[in-house]
Every structure is written in C-alpha cells, then in structure tokens.
Amino acid sequence: MSLAVSGLGKALGGRALFADLSLEMAAGEFVAVMGESGTGKSTLLNLIAGLEMPDAGRVSLGEQSLAGLDDAALTRWRRQALGFVFQAFHILPHLDVRDNVALPLRLNGRTNAEARAAAQAMLDQVGLGARGASAPGELSGGELQRVAIARALVHRPALVLADEPTGNLDPDNAARVLALLAEQVRVHGAMCLMVTHSAQAAAIADRVLLLAGGRLQRA
Ligand SMILES: Nc1ncnc2c1ncn2[C@@H]1O[C@H](COP(=O)(O)OP(=O)(O)O)[C@@H](O)[C@H]1O
Ligand SMILES: [Mg+2]
Description:
4-stranded antiparallel β-sheet
C-alpha cells in the first residue's frame, strides 16, 4: 500500500494551517515530521487517519481516496490497516492494560484467547510483560506511552501514525519503542509517519520532513 496526500488544505480556529500540502509514502518507508508546536502536525495525522476532514485536497491509500469511503468502510480500514499512537495515548481506563492492547484484535474478530496472547507478546516487547493485569491508572506516563505503542502495533498495521511516541520516554525506552516501529516498517513492510521533536527519534527515519509555513520540506 502507498499513501498519497495532495493539495491538502485545512483551517482551524479561523487560521489556515496548510493550503496545499503534499506527501507521498511508499510501503516500507519510515518518515519523520518535525516542526514547531502549533504548525499542524497532529492535525495532519488526524487528516490522514480520516478522523478529521480536509477543507481541500485528498488523502489516498493506494488507488482509494479516503473521501470515497463511507463511514463503515473507513472504520474497517482503520481497524485493519491503521495503527495510531496518539499524543494523549487514549488508553481506556476501565480495561486492564492487556485488554487495552488486545482491543484492535478483538475489533477485528479474533477470539479473546488469541487477542490476549498476542497482546501479552507485544507487552513483553515494550517491557511491560508484568503489567498486563494492571489498571491504566496505576501506570506512569512513560508506561502508558508504551501501552499505546503496543496497541498500535499488535494487529500489524500497514500504516502507523505516531504522534511524538517517545515524548515521555527515557533514552532506553525510547530506543526500544523506535526499534519496534522500525521493525514494523523493515520486517513487515509497513509505512510509518512519526511526528517527533527528538533528534534520536528522527535519526531512525528514512526521510525527515519539516512542517513550516503550511508546507512539508526536507529537513
Ligand atoms: N479543534 C480545534 N479547534 C480550533 N483550533 C484547533 C483545534 N485543534 C487544533 N487547533 C489549533 O490548530 C493548530 C495546530 O494544532 P496541532 O495540529 O495540534 O499542532 P501541532 O501538533 O503541530 O502542535 C494550533 O494552533 C491549535 O491550537
Ligand atoms: Mg501535536
């Protein structure tokens, strides 16, 4: 699968974030996006995920434009092909850590036993193998960030959108998370678009782009 963003326009709060933004990504590519706070990096990820609608332009996955998908098709695409690491984690407080990670697999129709086994394996990989039965409220910010990464990767998505995925992590855990994102790209042929302020994180990407003045440029 490839991703093509063309002529994207979006205004928020009466201010144009971008008027003509373009981005192309191929399967197996890892792209980092940097840029000052407020330039629209999180908005760009939301537009690519179909969580927000652009004012102009289009987002296409392969030949398929997101605008051409109805709600059900968009939901199905998100569940199967997309892993999203949100800046604010969005971990569900009433599910334990393992069930949070298992959720994408449950939504894709896998049995509870299969989903929990795969979730446990992902938790082991992010260094939280012993925390599966914990409530999210018992975890630190850095631990929740790693739960969010595990949940975004557990169903082996073709497209990973990650919003500052190492922002709350110490260097060792940041390296561990970046290695998992890179593995999803290099071993499983996914695309990863990662917003980051970290030079350590950007260094793992094939391309580093800067969002400034409503355009994506090579950094
Ligand atoms: N729902 C919204 N309504 C109005 N303004 C918003 C909304 N969401 C974000 N913004 C504004 O849009 C701009 C870009 O936000 P965002 O995409 O979160 O930037 P970044 O992730 O680069 O820091 C910011 O100025 C922010 O205040
Ligand atoms: Mg942001």
